Structure to design on (229 residues):
């Protein structure tokens, strides 16, 4: 693995050390790591007209740069990145990363982690809404608040927040969410089953949405890791 460059880690190198956010539940073998220090972003990008997604060297958690997502102003302004990976050996997979928000941010972001395998499709979706200070997961065709997940985060470009989100694709169940050192057991909730994609793959999407004031603010993401548990 080229240190700091996005790639897929083979079975022989799963235990290679990477810069991981400090969490009490940091577990699992790393199968993908992106610190966004390669100026050629290895993710596809899309969004409302006028969005801006880029590698930001002026703000970062590690390795000298991070991913910045800036949606355009407007009621429905949004932007997102997406990346595909080979299907891991284990169907229990997790996302670890850090994020922070531009001063004034009152929007929300969502992260989807999905897998198409053996003709079935499974997806877990996580949402954080800065306006409510709450975390949500998607099931029964809507986002539902995770009980007791209210948190107060100051929008600060240097105030990175750590989290890990785990789902079990084989049972179509959520497993857990850890934010900083707050742990939430999600095993009673089922993931969704979106339409199957054309090829077997694991993929993830990160969306940034404007809030009630219809103003676009930057969401920064760094030290993005996919693990198999």
């Amino acid at each position: 693995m080229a240190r700091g460059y996005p790639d897929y880690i083979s079975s022989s190198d799963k235990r290679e050390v990477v810069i991981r956010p400090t969490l009490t539940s940091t577990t699992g073998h790393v199968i993908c790591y992106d610190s966004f220090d390669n100026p050629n972003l290895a993710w596809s990008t899309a969004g409302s007209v006028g969005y801006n997604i880029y590698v930001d060297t002026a703000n970062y958690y590690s390795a000298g740069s991070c991913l910045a997502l800036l949606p355009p102003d407007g009621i429905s302004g949004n932007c997102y990145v997406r990346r595909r990976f080979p299907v891991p050996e284990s169907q229990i997979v997790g996302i670890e990363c850090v994020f922070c928000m531009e001063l004034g941010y009152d929007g929300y972001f969502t992260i989807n982690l999905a897998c198409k395998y053996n003709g079935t499709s499974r997806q877990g979706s996580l949402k954080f809404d800065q306006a409510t200070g709450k975390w949500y997961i998607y099931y029964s065709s809507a986002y539902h608040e995770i009980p007791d997940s209210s948190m107060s985060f100051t929008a600060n470009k240097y105030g990175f927040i750590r989290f890990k989100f785990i789902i079990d694709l084989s049972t179509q169940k959520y497993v857990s969410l850890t934010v900083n050192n707050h742990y939430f057991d999600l095993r009673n909730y089922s993931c969704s089953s979106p339409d199957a994609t054309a090829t077997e793959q694991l993929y993830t999407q990160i969306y940034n949405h404007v809030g009630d004031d219809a103003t676009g603010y930057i969401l920064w993401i760094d030290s993005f890791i996919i693990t198999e548990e």
